[in-house]
Specification:
With 582 residues, the protein is an alpha+beta fold. The chain has a domain of 31 residues. Helices cover 16% and strands 49% of the residues. The chain contains ten helices and 32 strands. The chain has a 30-stranded mixed beta sheet that branches. The longest helix has 25 residues. The radius of gyration is 39 Å and the shape is rod-shaped.
């Protein structure tokens, strides 16, 4: 029903209709219909009920024929927004009770929304929006505050179209300003089960590629709660590395040959993102927690760079940078890391037994490589790897398990199985230069009690084979007779060590080179008591001795007579050896 008491009176409306089993009701009054053609204002005070929604409109249009001078308030409420979306032929499930109020002003080309207040229940979550939009049609001048909170993140799985973990209560607060294409989010605060992330971000959706800038901070993130439990069994190689055990399979490889998921970087063709992230405490798994994480991430054009990359883990501090670029279906990687630990022995444990005590440790990695898998990248590696270890004590049992014969060298005699006598390490210094996957040892010094080992050779990362030779300097001459040089062969996963049998035979026959032992006088210039400087000083002394050995010596009559006597002594020993064999 609709009626007017006079041509200038308001139009009273009370209409009821239905469509597809949905009823519609419109009631209220429209003022000024008679003056519309004359350009007079049109007043509205009507209520519409449809699909469970109640829409109340009150206000006026100053120039209705031009759709200009709009000034009215709109209130919408209902018990199911999902029911309302069905009328728009774009149904969305899980949307519940809602309330919307807003002041609308402007014209058909530019409508301003002010006093905006929206509350919506969606899948158990409460969503609130307040603020204003200067031009709702062009979506410019957006200035709104958004709040979302709920009791269970898992309840949003339907809306997100993916399974979300049940982490308990969550909330999000943010101020959003800008336009439909350029968005500026400030005072962002996300809280999930007590884990909070704060920050700001900017996005230019209209740009090609899409531009994104974000600065985020969190006091604590626990990935074990955010991600599904990983039930995969660790590989035997990972177990071996983690426990200090080595593999008996010479064909087993340390570096996996699985293809890298480079397809996931395809999205970087459409985005240029700069993210600064700081996390005070990041729990990766029950045994691993990163602290003071500081990351600067730039991702664009199938290229990812991380600078800075800083964090602490297990007492160690890491500072460096990482770069990755997809080139012809392969990853080009560049990495530089500085790693420092004040006492690396705290990390080395086997079956709850202490394997190493003490040992300030420094490592510098500066490498580049490329390939479609980790194995390919390692095989193409170029750069350097240096390490320094300060004073420490190593468990004899651990060393026996890793390199039984190396243990014998460090302890001067082959120890009986089960001995607990620690091996005193004064220092260790290594310097590898890597070219096309081959790491050559420019220096490799291990200074232990009464003995200093000097390594030479290479590690071939292409097949993971070891080709390392060790010589030594002993503090006492008698030590030389039981300590010949030794070799380390095998692979990274299955290393083996053995004495240099040729040198051992020379010692047994009394042909050892006495210059391998040096006394206190020859060490008098080596002032460092411990630490990396001690190893460097011993390397200088060792190279000097090598030079002396290589220098031609004048042969005297006395030397000839001495050699004759030595030969006689050798023949006597050989004779006694064969007699015992009869």
């Amino acid at each position: 029903m609709a009626k007017m008491d006079s041509p200038t009176a308001p139009l009273f409306v009370d209409l009821v209709a239905s469509h597809d089993a949905e009823s519609f009701e419109l009631a209220g009054e429209i003022d000024g219909i008679a003056g519309v053609l004359a350009g007079e204002p049109l007043g509205l005070d009507v209520t519409l009920n449809a699909a469970g929604a109640t829409v109340m409109i009150k206000g006026a249009v100053a120039r209705p024929l031009e759709a200009d001078g709009i000034d009215m308030t709109v209130q919408v409420s209902g018990d199911s927004l999902s029911r309302l979306t069905e009328l728009a032929t774009a149904p969305v499930t899980g949307l519940g009770e809602y309330q919307i109020s807003v002041t609308v002003a402007g014209n058909a080309d530019a409508i301003a929304l002010s006093n905006l207040a929206v509350s919506l229940e969606a899948a158990g979550a409460q969503i609130g929006v307040s603020g204003s939009i200067s031009d709702a049609i062009a979506v410019t001048g957006v200035d709104v505050a958004v709040e979302v909170k709920g009791d269970s993140l898992a309840a949003l799985s339907t809306l997100a179209d993916t399974e979300l973990p049940d982490l308990g209560a969550f909330s999000m607060l943010a101020n959003i300003a800008g336009t439909a294409e350029k968005i500026n989010v400030t005072d962002l605060s996300i809280d999930i089960a007590g884990m909070q992330i704060d920050g700001n971000l900017k996005a230019d959706i209209g740009a090609e590629p899409l531009l994104l800038e974000a600065t985020l901070h969190s006091e604590k993130i626990d990935l074990t709660r955010l991600l599904p439990a990983d039930e995969a069994v660790e590989s035997s190689s990972a177990d071996a590395i983690g426990s200090g055990q080595v593999s008996d399979d010479s064909n087993e490889r340390m570096f996996p040959d699985d293809p890298l998921p480079l397809d996931s970087l395809d999205a970087l063709d459409t985005i240029d993102a700069v993210v600064k992230l700081k996390i005070d405490e990041l729990i990766v798994d029950p045994e691993t927690t990163l602290t003071n994480l500081d990351i600067g991430l730039h991702a664009a054009n199938k290229r990812v760079s991380i600078l800075p990359l800083k964090f602490s883990v297990m007492g160690a501090t890491i500072d460096g940078r990482v770069g990755l670029e997809v080139v012809q279906e392969a990853a080009a990687v560049a990495t530089m890391l500085n790693i420092h630990h004040p006492s690396v022995g705290d990390l080395v444990e086997d079956d709850s037994k202490t394997m190493l005590v003490g040992g300030p440790f420094d490592m510098v990695i500066d490498v580049t490589g490329n390939g479609a898998s980790v194995r390919d990248i390692m095989a193409s590696l170029n750069g350097s790897l240096t390490t320094e270890l300060g004073a420490a004590q190593a468990s004899s049992q651990w060393m026996q398990r890793m390199f039984a014969e190396v243990t014998a060298i460090l302890t001067k005699t082959v120890p009986k199985r089960g001995t607990t006598e620690p091996i005193e390490l004064h220092c260790m210094v290594t310097d590898f230069r890597i070219t096309n996957g081959v790491a050559e040892a420019e220096s490799f010094v291990v200074d232990a009690r009464n003995i200093t080992l000097f390594g030479d050779g290479r590690i071939d990362l292409r097949d993971e084979s070891l080709h390392l030779d060790f010589d030594w300097l002993a503090a006492r001459a008698k030590t030389q007779n039981v300590l010949p040089p030794f070799k380390v062969r095998g692979t990274l996963m299955s290393p083996s060590s053995r004495f240099d049998t040729k040198a051992m035979l020379g010692n047994v026959l009394g042909l050892g080179d006495g210059s391998k032992s040096i006394g206190d006088d020859e060490f008098s210039d080596l002032t460092a008591a411990t630490g990396s400087e001690r190893c460097r000083q011993r390397l200088i002394a060792y190279r000097k001795i090598q030079d002396d050995r290589a220098r031609p010596k004048e042969i005297t009559v006395e030397q000839v007579l001495k050699d004759v006597e030595t030969t006689k002594d050798v023949l006597k020993k050989l004779g006694g050896f064969f007699k015992r064999k009869k």
